[in-house]
Amino acid sequence: GKRLVHHWDKLDLSIGVALHLQAVLKEGARYVVVPGQLPTGCIPIVLTLYASPNKRHYDRRTGCLRKYNALARYHNGVLFEALYRLRIKYPAAKIVYADYYAPLIDFLKKPKKFGFSASSKLRVCCGAGGPYNYNMTAACGFPGATACANPAAHVNWDGIHLTEPAYERIAAGWLWGPYGHPPILKAMRQ
């Protein structure tokens, strides 16, 4: 597998987001929703590109690559802390952290609870073979790729994007909880 070291530079993104958000808040923004990072180690393109023969590199409950999820968790933690500080600095603004990480992990740990098929939890709906039905030479929309019969049973659409039902469940969690911190509708009422 490729080394993780070059990915650590991307953590500057969370600090950059906070700096840009501060500029928007200085201009008078009152309602801001800031999304966190998906569990990168659960994305089929990452699982395919960085596949490892070592089973210890994978989370036994989700099947995701552990080190990439550790990076996403770290990024999200830095971002969450930055948003906390911005809430203190700009108390009139409503700043929501929109968690992408927790819902996807929930979908993978308990797919049936959320209406997804347990057998398709890491497999893409629209793809062309391989352990995750993801093939970079036959990506969704290219010759050789086919779409599954029931996209609603899948979490992942094409190896990069989630399915519409997955996004709907995440959005509902952002609006009403538990994936919005605070939930968007609660922030709007305050």
Automatic annotation (TrEMBL):
GO terms for molecular function: hydrolase activity, acting on ester bonds. Keywords: Glycoprotein. It comes from the Eukaryota. InterPro entries: GDSL (IPR001087), SGNH_hydro_sf (IPR036514). Gene3D superfamilies: SGNH hydrolase (3.40.50.1110). The keyword Isomerase does not apply. Transmembrane segments: none annotated. Belongs to the 'GDSL' lipolytic enzyme family. This is GDSL esterase/lipase. It comes from Aegilops tauschii subsp. strangulata (Goatgrass).
